[in-house]
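Table S2 (text version). Query chain:
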Amino acid sequence: MKTISVFGSSRPKAGTEAYENARAVGRLLAEAGFIVATGGYTGTMAGVSQGAAEAGGHVIGVTSEAIEAFRPLKHNQWVIEEIRYVTLHERLMHLVTQNDGIIVLPGSSGTLAEMGMAWGMMQVGEMEKRPFSLLGDLWRNTLETFADSPYMYPQDFNTLHFADTPAQAVAHMQVCK
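Corresponding structure-token output:
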């Protein structure tokens, strides 16, 4: 089975639009036969995990002792397989590189770091190109600013897929099956 890494914020609570969109992403990925990998904690990571688990999917939570020292918590209850690292860097590298596709949900600096690392590694060929979908207006608005600058090569921007709905983001992952 192919694994899809999903990046997103730790802040949304169950019942919010962001959480429910994440839950839909997880459910749709599991229904499509993918393994789901997230950072394993709260917010949209929990939403994705919950949706995938409810659909009978396999959920990997990639966790870190460094995060738990900073913010004491354990992986969410829907994680079936925990992959644990000491450092945030190790966790980041696993989530970014050990997948067959990536979906980026709205998030903050951590999500931006994950998205930027994956995108940059694909641009320079350090990592094979793979389906890479960004869900929602946050990323479209942010990254279109880069696309309009003299610093961005059009072919690099064209590696990104912008999705308006969870179904569109998951459908884009089908090219890696």
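Notes on Table S2: The mean pLDDT is 94. Strands lie at 3-7, 35-38, 59-64, 81-85, 101-104, 132-135, 161-163.
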